[in-house]
Amino acid sequence: MMKRSFSENTEQKETPAQQRQVRDHEKTLKEMTAVECVHCSDLEDYYKDTAHLLTLNYDLMKFIFSTSAGSKVLSPGRLFVICHMAHRNSVAVLLRSESPPKVPAVTLTVLVLCSENMVQRNAGEGALLPLPVHELSVPQGKLSHEIVNIAPTDVLYITNQRLALKDPAAMLKPKPPLPGGKKRPEEGEADELTQQLMVIAEKMNQKDEVTTIDPKKDLKILDLDFAEKWSQYKTIKDRLRTYECLGCPDLNAHYGDTYVRKSLHDKVQKLKYNLSQQNLSLLPEYEQRIRVLQRLMYVDHDRIVQLKGRVACEINNCDEVLVTELIFNNVLTDLTAEQIVALLSCMVFQSKINDEPCLTKALQEGQENIIKMATLIGETQMECGMTEPVDTYLETLKFGLVEVVYEWARGMPFAEITNLTTVEEGVIVRCIVRLDETCRDVRNAARVIGDPLLYKKMELASELIKRDIVFAASLYTA
Ligand SMILES: [Zn+2]
């Protein structure tokens, strides 16, 4: 948020070592060519999706295992699919879960299926980054297993299956081999489990399906943030199967090339971002802005982002401080979805018009409240040393389309809408399309503060404005 406010003013100043790194990496990047392959035209998008999917999986698993509901599935015998070091997409059974003192996360000890001659390799940095895996790994050659400690975030799927265990504790204790190749009972059990895992992996591959638990139904996880990520996860997962590059016989190699190039690209972006952040802190205006944010309690005295700051970070398409203040001061609470979306248009619509819109009492009050809130922000900015006069700040709000958007959200046909205003059709359409993004921002902000009512209202608002001509009319928005 703070960064965004100032990005235009940032002057790039040299920080020599990092600058050199950026230049070197960029040179290397230029020499790398994108994969040229007839099958892999959509590989870049596929890579993006897989990378995103793994990030989501990481967050989801971290959350699940941090809840008490999640710890229910942690009982020994639970069947997972894991991705850990050399074990990729491998089935594993949970033997033990424990939370060592002073360590925030649980450690899972699992017995994982592998082949006897599987080469153990330390996969190193980036090992858990996206790989195109759609099948469970089925060992070739003689079956074996390994008992490993993993983090919850190494779990790819929590299946709804459990295996019966006789003596998991015994399996965990390392013992020297018995003379004559004899086996202890627990070694026998481990072998049996390995056989069972093999049968399960083959069956899952045949059916092309892993039946997982449903966090919402089975674990009753109702957290809104989690639900949003879970639905994104499912959408991407379904989409992954539609990629043409999956038909490429050299997908692994081509994917690997893309991975190398993309991760270098990301590294450069990160370096550049750090550099610009360093420059940013040199600006006096940055300090003034920080004072504003401290005064309004977006960051604390140590500049640590507070709840308000987190909410503001969700707002990408309009004045994030104003929207956050509206939310925190309950200005939107008693309004209907139609009224909220209409009023939000004051931050999206940008032209000055002389129409005299005819507003209902609630909308008038809403408008007054927004102006009051903006005045407070403007005054705080002045007090903290910023130079923009309050009036100039207030002039950025344009209420000219409030009535139009209100009637549109209430279902008035587009042809009639245009009679309410002198604003051009194309401008109205663009404003409404952008408002949909704003609704999404406010919805996400509501998720962050845990306001399910506002969340639902914003979802409804999105639905109400997404009608016929406006969202079909690509001629205006293209
Ligand atoms: Zn290819």
From TrEMBL:
Kindly give the SMART domains that the UniProt entry links to this protein. DSHCT
Q: Which residues form the ATP-dependent RNA helicase Ski2/MTR4 C-terminal domain?
A: 300-477
Query: What biological processes does GO assign it?
Result: nuclear-transcribed mRNA catabolic process, 3'-5' exonucleolytic nonsense-mediated decay
Q: Which keywords are on file for this protein? A: ATP-binding, Helicase, Hydrolase, Nucleotide-binding
Instruction: List, in alphabetical order, the Gene Ontology terms for molecular function in this entry.
Output: ATP binding; helicase activity; hydrolase activity
Instruction: Please give the residue ranges the record annotates as the region Disordered.
Output: 1-24
GO CC terms: Ski complex
Superkingdom, according to UniProt? Eukaryota
Xref: InterPro entries: Beta-barrel_MTR4, MTR4-like_stalk, RNA-DNA_Helicase, Ski2/MTR4_C
Q: Where are the transmembrane segments?
A: none
Pfam families per the record? DSHCT, MTR4-like_stalk, MTR4_beta-barrel
* Protein's name according to its UniProt entry: ATP-dependent RNA helicase Ski2/MTR4 C-terminal domain-containing protein
Species this protein is from: Sphaeroforma arctica JP610
